[in-house]
Amino acid sequence: MMLQKWKQCGTAVQGVDHIHAGVPCQDNVAFAAANGVHAIALSDGGGSRKFSHVGSLCATRAACDFLLQKFENVYSRMQRIAVADAKAKKMLLALRLEILDAVLNAMRAEVTEERTLYDFGCTLQFAAVKDGRYIVGHVGDGVIAALYQRGLSRCVQVLSHPENAGAPNVTFFVTDHDAEAHLRLSHGECGQLEGILMMSDGPEEVLYSPANGMHQNTQKLFDNFKGVKHGEYEAALSKFLSGNIARHSFDDLSLCLLYLETADRSKLSPAYCSELFEGVTARNQLKRVSSYTWLLDPSIPPSGEDDLSFLRC
After folding, report:
1. pTM of the full structure
2. One-character DSSP codes across 173-209
3. Which of 70, 99, 116, 145 has the fewest other C-beta atoms within 10 Å?
4. pLDDT in tens, 282-292
């Protein structure tokens, strides 16, 4: 029997320059799941903004909350925009402003006499999946990539490239007066998509090239998550960033990923199975995706309890 489950993991580590200067890590990641929606977000706080670490924290949490609550609404609006609806331009602007307003409202709650909205300047990346569909959004630099199954092979391709204002160290923030012009949105059916990866501009320096796309070893960030518990993989990501990537970039470093693991039940350890099945108690949390594969989704509230021993045998 094969089992599938959407897994989420991410981490941010303080860059060498910030360690020496006594500046807090300005990157933040967030991930959440509810009612069949699985969302991730990453934000890189602007080095020139005094409280950008607060802004990036607010931005990631607000983006995930928005996607959990509004996935269906956003996806349907993006479909209308994509087919060149007569009101497409106005609809796209309204959607961009609505998303940004949700993020900025979270920041406004943190404004005091000592820190303004300007001080919270940060980039933002977000993505969510539900029922075989995805939504992706991006403001600023950093990269969003996706893992695809192409026939018998798998590959990582760029979903959203970094946007810099003509210089490597210049980008756009969600707090900019024209941020809506720089919020790039995309959507579609997952099809062969098996995962989404986000990175700030620190890992971007090592794992991404404007000419060649993603480094060939980027796929390992997904593959190494297979069969590994969340806490263990978060520690592995932190070690990878602080030990490998930090040799090439002195900036703060962050990664966040969403991964659809497919595993052979008979080959999983008891400890890993315990985490895999955590929260799964009812049939409505299962979806048969083939004659021998079940998708587990504990983010869906259970409707009663059922005998699911057939999954654990």
Report:
1. 0.96
2. -TTSTTGGGG-EEEEEE-TTEEEEEEE-HHHHHHHEE
3. 116
4. 999 999 998 88
Q: Is 307 exposed, middle or buried (0-12, 13-18, 19+ CB in 10 A)?
A: exposed
C-alpha span between 286 and 151 (Å, rounded): 26
| Identity at 256, one-letter amino acid code | C
Instruction: List the strands of the sheet with 253-264, edge to edge.
Output: 153-160, 143-150, 193-199, 253-264, 2-13, 293-296, 286-290
Count the alpha carbons within 13 Å of 53 in the hemisphere toward its beta carbon: 11
CA 208 from centroid of its chain's CA atoms = 17
* Residue 79: pLDDT over 80: yes
pLDDT tens-digit series, residues 172-194: 999 999 999 999 999 999 989 99
> Where do the domains of the chain lie, and which CATH numbers do they carry?
2-268 (3.60.40.10)
> Under 8 Å CB-to-CB from 150, ≥6 apart: which residues?
192
User: Which tokens is 239 given?
Assistant: 């070690």
CA separation, residue 132 to residues 35, 38, 129, 135, 146 (Å): 14, 11, 7, 11, 14
